[in-house]
């Protein structure tokens, strides 16, 4: 399988005439026409299928997956077990080469219990079919929502590349995690591991289908940042533009663009791919933001912000408007604050150089020219 993937990647690069790591519709049509004599109209239909994230181009991982992969399947159903209603998940891993790890998260639930915790992670070997109990119904009426269901390639246990880039200015120890100014419980870090090594490294991608549900918070209290990332994910091309590359680089060196509020300009933050991890059920799991599936943009962007601010601990609590400014480069943003039953327009006042990289510094000033807006007059 690895050899086949390598050959398909070489074929992709041959027809990627622009050399930008993505294939346009015309380039894919040329490939299909030359190799398989596919009529142009059908080839253009196939392009739409191969363009999994619907961004108008086909990435190399989309091209390989389109030609080789059989996606794993799952089905959630309600059954009666020992006279009690139970919700089960039936999972089939159609791959004969790579194991898959499914994560089921139950939300908006009532009168149910979780015998194996919530969320629940299930590992499925190649070609295996398993059934796992997700929850028991304790009383009527009950409700639950199984969302989102995610899967990623299982950890292969392959050793890290000894030549992978390591950023010595953001070391793989507690000095990059702990906030020296605050005593915080930031979870447990047992080792630092390259993001691609969390599963099968051959399936790791920087971007797949960029969506708000890609954003999953970890042990640090940066919900304000996750909120901003989720909103920005509704504009995939803007978010992708923060990275210097659209693919997982071979050496694991990433360059991320962030906006320096004090300097009033974009700056480039260089990071490596190593993430703080804990070991759960024999598999590495990120201590902080978690990737959805095999894509890595969320934990890597969080790491870039951590380095920008000083440590992961510096991200514990903050303001979304700060994140929006740093991620979008907008020089000024309007924020509404509630005051005595009304909403007041505010904007951020001047900040010092040190304050500009502290997401906990609000420094919001009421706009004296703006009239308060009554809460019940807003369309929410």
What does this structure look like?
The protein is α+β, with helices and mostly antiparallel strands and 380 residues long. The chain folds into four domains: 2-68, Recoverin, domain 1 (Orthogonal Bundle), CATH 1.10.238.10; 73-153, Immunoglobulin-like; 174-327, no CATH class; 332-377, no CATH class. The chain is built from eight helices and 18 strands. A hairpin with a 4-residue loop joins strand 11 and strand 12. Helix 2 (25-36) crosses helix 3 (40-50). The radius of gyration is 23 Å and the shape is globular.
General form: globular
Give the beta-strand count: 18
**Which regions have little confidence, pLDDT < 50, spanning 5+ residues?**
none
What is the H-and-E element order? HEHHEHEEEEEEEEHHEEEEHHEEEE
Percent helix, as a range, is 10-25%
Gyration radius, rounded: 23 Å
Beta-strand share of residues? 25-35%
How many structural domains does the protein architecture include?
Answer: 4
Sketch the major β-sheet.
Answer: 4 strands, antiparallel
> Please, how many helices?
8
What's the arrangement of strands in the largest beta sheet?
A: 3-4-8-6
- Average of the residue pLDDT scores: 85
Question: Could you tell me how far the N terminus lies from the C terminus, measured between alpha carbons in angstroms?
Answer: 51 Å
Decide which structural class fits the backbone. alpha+beta
Question: Brief overview, please?
Answer:
The protein is an alpha+beta fold. The protein contains eight helices and 18 strands.
For the structure shown, list the relevant keywords.
single chain; 380 residues; alpha+beta; Recoverin, domain 1; Immunoglobulin-like; 4 domains; 4-stranded antiparallel beta sheet; 8 helices; 18 strands
